[in-house]
# Entry
Amino acid sequence: MPFYAAMSTHISGVMLGRATRTLQAGGVIAYPTEAVYGLGCDPLNPLAVERLLAIKQRPVEKGLILIASRFDQLAPFVQPPPPEIQRRLEETWPGPVTWLLPANAMTPRWLRGQHSTLAVRVTAHPVAAALCEAFGGAIVSTSANPTGRPPARTALQSRLRCRTVDLTVHGAVDRSARPTAIHDGVSGAVLRSS
# Structure
């Protein structure tokens, strides 16, 4: 059983409302995901993404991950997967598996970086999924730490490592978990195992 499943995973309606308004206003939030605290923002707001990348000290060329509470929130950003890949997505989602899928031609460069694919995941974490539901779509998800530093696994660590975020959403992560697995949606290869 994941650590967070044994902990209180309820996010209050007040906090959910604050987080949603922060995302809609172009803010950057820190929030729990399956294994680490993440930084998130509205993926279609270039100024919000630029600010997130500055906090993270991550070059835009590397690309970002989008998380969602269900696949239809990711569909506008990626090409429709072939049936075999769709079946594999359904077998691993919701869950801690990130897939690299061919990006839709309209997907902004600030999300995909120098790649023709986009990293996407339907999260199983109840707080992260609730954030996506309340926001009404996918949000950016990158670990809450400057590039090259250890990832934050608590709200306090995320605040200490990323001091200029607009809001920190509290919740548990599975401290024994490794970063999510990454699978290639074209070849099916496992690029990083969890």
